[in-house]
Sequence to fold (729 residues):
Amino acid sequence: MPKLVIRNGRVMDAERRLDAVCDIAIDNGRIAAIGKNLDVAGAGEFDATGLIVAPGFIDMHVHLREPGFEYAESIESGSRAAAAGGFTSVCCMPNTSPVNDNATVTSYIIERAERHAVVNVFPIGAITKNSAGEELAAIGSMKQAGVVAISDDGRPVMNARVMRRAMETARSFGIPVIDHCEDLHLSAGGDMHEGRESVRLGLRGIPAASEDVMVARDIVLAELTGARFHVAHISSRYSVEMVAFAKSRGLAVTCETTPHHFALADCDMPPYDSNYKMKPPLRSACDIGTVVQGVVSGTVDAIATDHAPHAGSEKMQEFEKCPFGIIGLETAVGLTLEKLVHSGKITLSRMVELFTAGPARVLNLDRGRLALGAPADITILDMERIWTYDVNRSASKSRNSPFDGCTFRGGPVATIVGGRVVWSAEDR
Amino acid sequence: MPGGLLGIEPLDRVEIEAILDRAKSFQPQQMEGRRDMLRGRMIVNLFFEASTRTRTSFEIAAKRLGADAISITASGSSVDKGESLVDTLNTLGAMHPDAIVMRHAASGAPHFLARHLPTPIINAGDGTHEHPTQALLDARTILDRRPTLEGLRVAIIGDIAHSRVARSNMYLLSKFGAHIVLCGPASLLPAELAAIAPGVTLTHDIREAILGADVIMMLRVQFERQHEAAFSASEYFQFYGLRLEHMGLARPDAIVMHPGPINRGREISSEVADSQRSVILNQVENGIAVRMAVLERILSN
Fold:
């Protein structure tokens, strides 16, 4: 593999508290040197003057839809969307068909990714067989095959006893349990956040309590079992407060939030626009305030997209019939800059942490930092670039985004995976 | 209203008053013979949900104005064959009707179609959201007996959570300064209702709701529509059914309304439904007049 030197960028690494203008030399897919005026013979040059050079961004929560739903997304198309969004690694949820509940499916995903993905793909295995919530999946052998966590995302384990056993098993194998916290009895039939807007629109509500009771249950079980427990896409006020409480007790409890959960409130939805329908639903302004506060204070460990592609025909239906979920890989960084960094809520360095060291720590990944000898995964940002999101030019196979037409200031301009430039804004 | 009529919420007072005034001239006692201002126009009534009175009312309204009205009900149509809503409407749209009157069990279904079709769409009831022509005919019925809606105390009693009639009436009455008291058991009366329109208060006590009321609107109890037992069906009439004994609490000239079809002995006793206070049949009459006014307003450009 050819050598590459990234010149003169503002190199930021939250993990190593690095923030300085310097060069990075890459050799054989790994970081070979970091310093000023590096002299590397025979290397390609990337002029990063005026740009931010950060560790490769990690999205710990995506749906790549392969195997089984390749009409909506594939490992290849999803990975290209990730690269276009500045992500060098993604973690794919197991709700494929078949469900990733055994080592064979895990190995299939990893092999497909090695062949077709332009970014690193880390699979997440199911907690229970077929994510049916009853019998534990083959967690140990999936871990050996390469899963980095277990989750029944979208079909949460309702039986507390099963969840207890899952946590004990995950602890034995040193991986976290990621829960999509939703009490399915409380949320049944709901289409949007329960509140003034749902009442106004005559849509059935998903109460914040359906998230909160499960976060509470899982925190209690995490203390009981000593497992690492991670709350997926946290969206409600009490849930954030409970995670902060769990952390204050010294529990290994972490959480992520998504850009759409801090960028949009329930009242921002144009009437019955299914591109605003997802789980958890867009919450109230009060919930958003607490989520943002959690991001600022450190309660929130990572920003993840919950990239959930759906074919156009699935979203072109009556609101109540449309599936939940939106795509998000290509807009995550722009939205985070717009809503959190430009508005002065967090620093750029904190944003880099939320996309790199934060998720890497949750998953215990050897990624997310610019260390000598580490894989050369690098995200390059231009803070002044003005760009408009055109969903019809998305690398994803799906178009279900509420952010089509939004203009952003700042965003990724190049994505480098293992020393190779896999996406650059100039490609567009 | 060239774009159709999706709900009361976005309308302003001037628009509503214009429809109500025009509707008065379409009442049977004012009408002489047929009027043909919509001759040659075609209106499709598309009912994805069973309805007798609203569909018939729209049909008669269209015909009294000289328009051609075609009614399609979901059962036995392409909908039964798995055609999506968009495809059904695109197909009908390609036949170039002048307006589509639509009822659908999903809230927002007409709004969804209005975004994808150029044809004006008239919402004849969408899920648990709005039923705009019902609120208009209710207002017409009240105004036949009162000089103004302003300051009236209107009690709306029943399953408010699932009622499109209640929402449209709340939006309309509040725009004209009426005081609205919503009444029902807590599981059918979300607290947020008080925040969606001004002048709205909530109570769980039917007697408190009726006290001093000028208008009592009863809602049809639809236990079959609820997804679980939110309130005991056997106790409903005892606590939330309107009976003669309640009428003394209301103003002496109070009127009783119901969007129909009524469930005698479930939400209203026969004695009340058939009493002098009941204006239920006037509502039906005004339904035609109001729908004529709406069709005329949307179709004559």
